């Protein structure tokens, strides 16, 4: 049975693995993300060879999920704020030097959404949104079983829709993005402000304090939930998804953030859109990206429909 490889490059870690024809994971591993482009390409090449040797089966196709805004027409990462050495970088020719199988490149959050759609909590739901609440906020949108790319591939950046017009300055250049108000960083900042604390805590530690009755900690999650709910209501009215899946480290505090998020979404979205959708936790965690990359490669190859293949 042939295999399909998936790579998911993050700012600190590269996750990769193999799926079989039925989309079952056969192997997975991770490596630290090298900072320079040259080292990264060298690592991709080594891992590709390792994957080929490992199962002694043909790898039929591969997917590479990369961090940043990826232009499908030019096959270039036009903005990669979390991976500066790849900013503006042309990706296809470099990868094609060592990958002899057909391969597809996409934004890693798009692939993560596809992973949840094919193998995770969104199985069988053809209209689906995945929002990953971590240090930043990533998202991918599945419409009619396809990744929503938009004209050039820049679609589905839910993390940078405005939920608070005069909110904090965002790394994207705007203000009051979902990311500046509902990410892990936002929760940590809020807690430090309202608890008047200068100690640096993780969201996990803040969640533990909230569960022990620390009101500032509880309010930090609720505030993030409120802005997340505004974002959810926009997504519900705009896209009418069957499911919105929430993942990432912040969801370790799902019990603390979900109530306020769902309440706010219910208050703002059309009742019909709200009731047609469920909002729940994603299932695949950090594996969603490489699973989605491999699944996309397998499905796209299978369809053999060049019009739907997002590269020139
Ligand atoms: Zn932004």
List strands and helices in order, with pairings.
Layout: E1 3-9, E2 13-20, E3 25-32, H1 37-55, E4 59-66, E5 69-71, E6 76-79, H2 92-96, E7 103-107, H3 108-119, E8 128-133, E9 137-143, E10 146-147, H4 178-182, H5 184-194, H6 203-211, H7 215-239, E11 243-247, H8 254-268, H9 271-275, E12 278-281, H10 288-303
Parallel strand pairs: 1-4, 4-7, 8-11, 11-12
Antiparallel strand pairs: 1-2, 2-3, 5-6, 8-9, 9-10
The structure holds zinc ion.
Zinc ion binds next to loops.
Rounded mean pLDDT score: 94
What's the total count of β strands? 12
Characterize the biggest β-sheet: 5 strands, mixed
Q: Give the strand order of the largest sheet, numbering strands 1, 2, ... along the chain.
A: 3-2-1-4-7
CATH topology of the largest domain: Nucleotidyltransferase, domain 5
Using the 3D structure, state the CATH architecture of the largest domain: 2-Layer Sandwich
- The number of helices is 10
Give the C-level CATH assignment of the largest domain.
Alpha Beta
Structural class: alpha/beta
Number of domains: 2
Approximately what portion of the residues adopt beta-strand conformation? Answer: 15-25%
Low-confidence stretches: 307-312
Bound molecules: zinc ion
Give the overall shape, derived from the CA principal axes: globular
CATH superfamily of the largest domain: ATPase, nucleotide binding domain
């Amino acid at each position: 049975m042939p295999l399909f490889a998936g790579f998911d490059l993050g700012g600190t870690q590269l996750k990769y693995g193999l799926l079989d024809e039925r989309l079952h994971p056969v192997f997975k591993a991770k490596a630290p993300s090298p900072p320079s482009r040259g080292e990264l390409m060298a690592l991709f090449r080594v891992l590709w060879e390792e994957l080929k040797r490992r199962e002694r089966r043909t790898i039929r196709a591969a997917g590479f999920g990369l961090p940043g805004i990826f232009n499908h027409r030019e096959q270039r990462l036009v903005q990669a704020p979390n991976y500066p050495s790849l900013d503006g970088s042309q990706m296809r020719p470099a990868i094609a030097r060592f990958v002899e199988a057909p391969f597809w490149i996409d934004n890693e959050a798009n692939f993560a959404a596809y992973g949840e759609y094919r193998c995770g909590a969104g199985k069988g739901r053809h209209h689906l949104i995945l929002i990953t609440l971590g240090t930043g906020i990533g998202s991918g949108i599945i419409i009619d079983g396809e990744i929503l790319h938009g004209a050039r591939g820049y679609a589905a950046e839910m993390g940078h829709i405005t939920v608070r017009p005069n909110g904090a300055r965002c790394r994207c250049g705007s203000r009051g993005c979902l990311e500046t108000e509902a990410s892990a960083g936002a929760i940590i900042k809020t807690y430090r402000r309202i608890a008047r604390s200068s100690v640096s805590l993780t969201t996990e530690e803040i969640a533990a304090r909230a569960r022990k009755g620390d009101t500032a900690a509880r309010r930090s999650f609720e505030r993030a939930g409120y802005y997340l709910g505004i974002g959810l209501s926009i997504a519900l009215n705009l896209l009418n998804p069957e499911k919105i899946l929430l993942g990432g480290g912040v969801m370790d505090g799902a019990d603390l953030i979900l109530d306020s998020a769902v309440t706010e979404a219910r208050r703002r979205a059309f009742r019909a859109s709200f009731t047609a959708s469920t909002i729940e936790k994603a299932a695949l965690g950090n594996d969603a990206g490489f699973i989605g990359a491999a699944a996309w490669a397998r499905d796209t190859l299978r369809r053999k429909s060049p019009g739907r293949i997002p590269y020139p």
